[in-house]
Amino acid sequence: MIAFVRGEVAAVTLNSAVLEVGGVGLELMCTPGTLATLRVGQPATLPTSMVVREDSLTVFGFLDDDEKSIFEIVQTASGVGPKVAQAIVAVMSPDDVRRAITTEDVKALTRVPGIGQKGAQRIILELKDRIGPPVGVHQPAASLPHHDAWRDQVQQGLVGLGWSAKESEKAVEAVAPDAGDRPDVGALLRAALRTLSKA
Q1: What is the reported pTM?
Q2: Does the keyword Glycosyltransferase apply (predicted)?
Q3: Which terminal Cβ of the chain has fewer Cβ within 10 Å, N or C?
């Protein structure tokens, strides 16, 4: 198994990154939140999980080991494959996933594309005793950084994906009303990408 990949970022697309490792370009499937942290030409180290199928060999890259472990554990629930698992870690932080499962929050899980009510109930039933409690310190909304922090992250992510600074700024403004009290950078980045693809 490939546990992690370290190398120079050769390319970043809408859903993957290519890291050059010893003269070989390895494509890693990544969430928008992970892609937003990568810059072409810069070194990066990403924990990875390899999914082997009869007709494919896919390597998924993650922001950290916690995200990777959630990706792997949710796949042990019946009906959850790598695509749904990746959607889960794209939409929710690892602690949000733990919280949703331990508190039986079906609504939170159904916000993930590809998970319906029955799927969410099955995930909760099968993983409740194994997922563990949230590990981080849950910040109250009042102590979260100012909204401008997410603006910078989303804009940098869009520029990293090849959009101009001006286009990126427009897309950030378009999604700003959706930010709310606790901006979800990954979700806002995806929403911004949708507005740009429509333009």
Answers
A1: 0.69
A2: no
A3: N
